Amino acid sequence: MPPTRPDTTLAVYRALALANVHYWTTVHRRVRAELRHWERQAAAIPDPSWRAIALDKLESEHFNAQVAATLATLAPHHLRPTVVRAIVAAEVLYDYLDGASEETAPHGGAKLYDVFATALGHERFETAHYYADLTTDDGGYMQRLALTWHNALDQLPAAVHVRTAAWRAADRCATAQTLTHRLHADGIESLRRWSETHAPRHHLAWWEYAAGGAASILSVHALIAAAAYAGTTDADADAIDDAYLLACALSTLLDSLVDHERDAAEGAHSFVAYYADERQQADGVSTVAHRAITAAARLRDAPHHVMTVVGVAGYYLSADGATAPAARRTSAAVRSQLGPVAKPILSIFAAWRAAKTAHETPATQAHTPSFRPL
Questions:
Q1: Which of 77, 218, 329, 364 gives 360 a disulfide partner, CB atoms 3.0 to 4.6 angstroms apart?
Q2: ∠ Cα 168 170 289 (to 5°)
Q3: Cα dist. 275→209, 278, 290 in Å?
Q4: Mean pLDDT over each residue of the chain, to the nearest integer
Q5: pLDDT tens digits, residue range 290-345?
Q6: H helices within 199-233, ranges in order?
Q7: Burial of 43 (0-12, 13-18, 19+ CB in 10 A)
Q8: What tens digit of pLDDT does each residue of 11-62 get?
Q9: Cα distance between residue 374 and residue 371, in whole Å
Q10: What is the dihedral of CA 154, 167, 22, 19, to 10 degrees?
Q11: What Cα–Cα distance (Å) separates residue 239 from each residue in 22, 138, 232?
Q12: DSSP letters along 251-274, please?
């Protein structure tokens, strides 16, 4: 049975409507302003290769920051600008490091990702040493992103209560991303060993934990939003991180699912390929979906968090790859866990994809981009 009861479904519908009102009236313009600010900063990077990475990421993945900032609608009105500033800086930094680490892998990428978790440290934050072993730098672009994120979070009333959980999520994200970027050089064993030390505590298979780690920027965003509420406790922050680890795992697993045929043809890494067969895959991914929704339903502002998990699933289930023969069983199993609340969200994403496809070239339609939604 889907974990959402009729009363929960109505509450999620209301949360979806309220989030849209708040987003378009108080958040959207600020997100765009922050992105324009970082575009100007990226355009001023002196080294052409780093400048190209920064500008390309802002152009191709700005949607991630725009949708992640919907979590800012949970914040009190007067704190939303600060929450938006922190979320956008964190997301832009995450996306930028994804490109920069590929440019500098295998050695420099690991050092660059260190900045991601260190930005959440309690001590005064410095980044200069992250550039030390690189042959060039980006004119301080990475440093400004990290400092903006660090300083904006510091201004939120419950920052001290979320910082440890946010650091844990960011460190998990940085480690998973670093090890995933090094797969072609080092093989799978380093990622497997790291995941196997943490996965049992969360009752996840090692590849499910690794998948959750790779997308844990979403957990960071949820914790930034929680820091705006003065009543947030350390226990609340831990619960948010645990719940969002499952949502992040679902995001990455579904990303791999819809791209599975392409990844198999290209010999690319796929997280869903570790399931023994389609039946185990359907059971595994749908169980993660069920657990993610159940955990989200226990959080403060539960309807919004449930909406987030359904949004994660709906984004991928609306993609063409979700109806491919190898994905149908898993897609149906995940959809069965979402309940009636999925219908409007799936419709929204289907309409968005149709409009987007109408304005794209065949080359840009070939791959469903990774996404940390709502």
A1: 364
A2: 85
A3: 13, 7, 18
A4: 87
A5: 999 999 999 999 999 999 999 999 999 999 899 999 999 999 999 999 888 788 88
A6: 206-214, 217-226
A7: exposed
A8: 888 998 999 999 999 999 999 999 999 999 999 999 998 999 999 999 999 9
A9: 10
A10: -160
A11: 25, 37, 11
A12: HHHHHHHHTHHHHHHHT---GGGG
Q: How far is CA 364 from the centre of its chain?
A: 21
What is the per-residue pLDDT for 374?
38
Q: Which of 96-105, 169-178, 344-353 has the lowest mean pLDDT?
A: 96-105
Residue type, 74: L
Q: What is the average pLDDT across 190-216?
A: 97
Residues with Cβ < 8 Å from 325, sequence gap 6 or more? none
Q: Which amino acid is at 327?
A: A
- At CA 271, angle to CA 370 and CA 104, rounded to 5? 60
Q: Which of 165, 168, 171 is nearest to 226 (CA)?
A: 165
How far apart are the C-alpha atoms of 351 and 37, rounded to whole Å?
A: 30
